[in-house]
Amino acid sequence: MIWKKEVFGRNSLDGLSVIGIFFLIINFYQSSYLLMFLGTLLIVMSWMGKYYLQHVSDHLVIENNKESIKVSVGEEFKLPLKFTQLSRLPIIHATLRIKLEPIIEGPNLHSSSSSDKRDLELTIPFQIKGKESVQVSLPLTAVKRGVTRVKSLEITVTNFFGIGYVELLYIPFLHQEIVIYPTLIPVPKIKQLIATKSYGYFSSSSSMFEDVLAPIGTRDYVYSDPFQRIHWKQSAKAQVLQTKVFERTAEYSWTFIINLRDIDLPNYRMNVIENLDSIASNIAYMARYATLKNIEYEIVLNLNMESGIPVYHLPVGGGSTQLGKTFEILARINRERSTQPISKLLHFVEKQQLKSPVVILCGPFGREGDRSFAQMQKRGQKVYYLQDDEQHPSIVPL
Predict the structure, then answer these.
(1) Which of 135, 73, 79, 133 is nearest to 107 (CA)?
(2) 272, 291 contact by CB (below 8 A)
(3) Phi–psi pair at 285, nearest 5 degrees
(4) Of 30, 328, 329, 354, whose CA is between 20 and 30 Å from 335?
(5) pLDDT per residue of the chain (398 residues) written in tens, 0 to 9
(6) Among candidate residues 252, 318, 321, the one with its CA nearest the CA of residue 290
């Protein structure tokens, strides 16, 4: 069963049957074609009305594919809903009513009268013939970052004769979702993040990779050294086998470390910071800037995701694919998920991040991360802090 049905007006339809039977009884004593016709008509109308209200939704289905509509704040779009009536019973006099979260707007949208005042309700006329499919396209406008879907869908179907109606509530979870990307808020002086070197590789003593085109000296040969690394000229001079030493390098990239837990309530896992939207908008701008400059980046944040992962990590990557993933995760961050402590976030960073030369801290950290940030700076990483703001954001060295 995909519809929860509640039929109204049964008593009125039963009343038609009672009146029809009364006319037939009178006709039994006083033969009258008119009374017989009226009695039979009322009984048939009552039976047909009850049958229609009880079975009109038996084969009414909604296309429920798992798909996402991805838009940006301020963008207009259409939400398609496809209905198919597999039986021959038509739906002529009906009203479609859906509930949505108030991160979108549209014509005929108004506040719901339910106890949940955050919902918006859209009511439109609806009809469909028997053995037919129709698609209803709802014109909407994205007004706020986030992810939403149709929270409930109801159809009120009135009987052919205007007596009685049935309310149909769609039971299955509607998979189609609307993903609204954050507004891009420019961050001034972002060029300082690439002032030293913005492409290729940079020196890193802690890296496991070496630049074979950049020898920096020699040392005494040990048994584990590759034979092709022996420096023969230097070995002849020193009369001892010498091995070439190359500069250790790492690929240039950025690391965004985002703390979403309020530091004033460090043990309260549901306490997400208030300035979530401005941080998301500033990061979205910086991510797009990095994409335009061909800079790869990674993102780490301490928010429990739908998959159950306690700390989310978007691995280092670049290009439009990475930017699309970034916009989507920024859209999906909300205050209904739990967060992890800053200590667990920074521990994950130490274990997983690729020692990017530029680290950008987002959200409050207080003094808790001082030791970790000092170690980053000791390794040669430049640590910056995002002072998020919708009007005057900035990037400052830590």
Answers:
(1) 79
(2) no
(3) -65, -45
(4) 354
(5) 799 999 998 777 777 777 777 777 777 777 777 777 777 888 888 888 888 889 999 999 999 999 999 999 999 999 999 999 999 999 988 999 999 888 898 887 776 655 445 678 888 999 999 999 999 998 999 999 999 999 999 999 998 878 889 999 999 999 999 999 999 999 998 888 875 444 444 444 444 344 444 456 677 767 666 766 777 677 777 777 778 775 554 567 899 999 988 877 655 666 778 888 999 999 999 999 999 988 899 999 988 766 667 788 999 898 999 999 999 999 998 877 788 888 888 888 888 766 788 999 998 888 888 888 898 888 888 899 999 877 888 898 88
(6) 318
- In whole angstroms, give the CA distance from residue 158 to residue 90: 11
**Within a 13 Å sphere around the CA of 377, how many CA atoms are in the beta-carbon half?**
10
| CA gap 164, 153 in Å, rounded | 20
Decide: residue 104, CB within 10 A, 0-12 exposed, 13-18 middle, 19+ buried: buried
